[in-house]
Amino acid sequence: MPRQTQEAPAKPGHYITVRVSEVEDAEISARAKAAGRTFSDYARYQLICGPIEQREREVLSPLAVTQLLRIGVNLNQLLDLPDAAGVHEAVGNLSDRIDPLVEEAIDTALGEEDYGGEDRSRMRRVRVTPDQQRVIKALADGSGKSLSDYAREMLTRGRVLIRRTRHREFPGYEELRDLGGLLNSRTRKGNTKGKTPHGLPPVLGRIHEILDAAAQG
Predict the structure, then answer these.
(1) Each residue's pLDDT tens digit, 38-55
(2) Residue 148, CB half-sphere, CA atoms under 13 Å: how many?
(3) Higher pLDDT, 57 or 102
(4) Is 194 left (phi over 0), alpha (psi -120 to 50) or beta?
């Protein structure tokens, strides 16, 4: 009776290539070692079975951030003018409130996954089967990331983070926009004449009140 032969298991024949920095390369090696696996085993497991987390972040609406940024620019220009009627303190106080709001919104929009242009001259290659490659590609597509970004994040951080952004409305935005336009007009006149414009305290005070209301709402 002829001996039955078994089908050989599918051999890995495809590669997923990931460009990493020196620091990221060391992080991958450390994670593989901590898991008690070779790089290839660790990488294949992580890319297919690694956790995918979802987080929702709330940020100010782009319109509000843009308006606050414009107001902040005007305030800085007013501080460069002579301190007529002692308005520099009021201008500085408002600037101190607006700057952190703008910085926080920008930082949140960038998110923690901004790598800051690291030199990724090193290459890591993960050998996979065609089926594994299709699964990993589908996971990357589902996360909204490129295959390379998905693989790099999963291997260096042990997970992939998906961020969902929800824009927070800014109460009193329309009035803030109008006040911003008024402040801009007066700042331009002040720059032209080289002196602090009149009528700033009421405008600055009302912007403070809108910021208070937004913080409470």
Answers:
(1) 999 999 999 999 999 988
(2) 7
(3) 102
(4) left
